[in-house]
Write a structure and sequence with these properties.
about 290 residues, mainly beta, Beta-galactosidase, Chain A, domain 5, seven-stranded antiparallel β-sheet, 2 helices, globular
């Protein structure tokens, strides 16, 4: 879809632009500012009016066709992490490197501007609704083709990177009663910790069987960010710390200090089973308190 054709979707507070050689929707309304690229349906910015930027972006990110953007909200779909039997396939699936189509724009929402994008992957129509307002509402809907001969399984994650003042000073509340898979300990299952999550080393955890809210507490910036969700039974918490940051070409060596990921997901044993003609919706609602 060309920039000229995208102009037909523009409304008050929303324009389509070319940025970093890629097409994007830029929101600047009374409720919030934000941006989503058609490449990967990738949200890279959201700041409600009167607040600092909520999402984190790497200054080393690629903005190239065929490569994922680093930061913001990548979409992991239809698998999470490496594909088990095909190491040649891209990590985290195909969605984050496809160019999505604009389906509709709602500029009359009572809470800002809603943009809906779509694509098709593996016989599934995938629609992504992004509501830029006083909260950021992200809804990923997958629908399996009616004529598909059998059900399909998929994993998904709204892999949200949050900007923080200092990773060693923040905490994440809400998962104290949940056990988790610790990928830093060979995927071993860890019991509930009964305390907020804090960071002093590389962290890669999948909290299982949870639809709980998470509260990111950042005393350095005197703010709290709430992540609520629906249609999700996994929550992933991630920070690469020092050594992994240095190994990633699209991640600055010192950038681990200013970010943390809280991912709304359905992965592993919580993957989604879709029957032909049926849909599943994964939703994350992000707000600043």
């Amino acid at each position: 879809m060309s920039l000229d054709k995208l102009k037909a979707f523009e409304t008050s507070g929303l324009e389509f632009v070319e940025k970093n050689r890629l097409l994007a929707a830029k929101v600047d309304s009374s409720k919030a500012k934000g941006m989503v690229f058609l490449h990967g349906a990738h949200v890279t910015s959201w700041a409600p009016t009167g607040q600092r930027e909520v999402l984190w972006m790497s200054e080393s990110s690629f903005f190239e066709l065929g490569k994922p953007i680093r930061g913001g909200v990548p979409i992991c779909f239809p698998w999470f992490g490496p594909y088990p039997s095909r190491p040649d396939l891209p990590a985290h699936g195909l969605a984050r490197t496809k160019v999505w189509d604009v389906v509709r724009v709602n500029g009359n929402s009572t809470d800002g501007i809603e943009i809906c994008l779509s694509t098709t992957i593996d016989r599934m129509r995938v629609e992504y609704s992004i509501g830029f307002g006083s909260s950021l509402r992200l809804s990923l809907t997958a629908t399996l083709a009616q004529d598909c001969p059998e059900p399909r399984f998929y994993e998904d994650a709204l892999h949200t990177y949050f900007s923080v003042s200092d990773i060693e000073q923040i905490s994440i509340e809400g998962l104290e009663s949940r056990s988790y898979i610790d990928k830093m300990q060979n995927g071993s299952m860890k019991p509930r910790a009964s305390e907020a999550i804090r960071f002093n080393a590389e962290t890669d955890r999948v909290y299982v069987d949870t639809n709980d809210d998470c509260l990111l507490v950042d005393p350095g910036w005197n703010r709290k960010i709430r992540v609520s969700k629906m249609g999700s039974q996994s929550t992933v918490i991630w920070n690469p710390w020092i050594e992994k940051s240095a190994r990633m070409p699209d991640f600055g060596d010192e950038e681990w200090k200013g970010m943390v990921c809280i991912e709304t997901a359905n992965v592993g044993n919580s993957r989604v089973r879709l029957a032909p003609g049926r849909s599943h919706i994964t939703t994350a609602i992000i707000s600043v308190e």
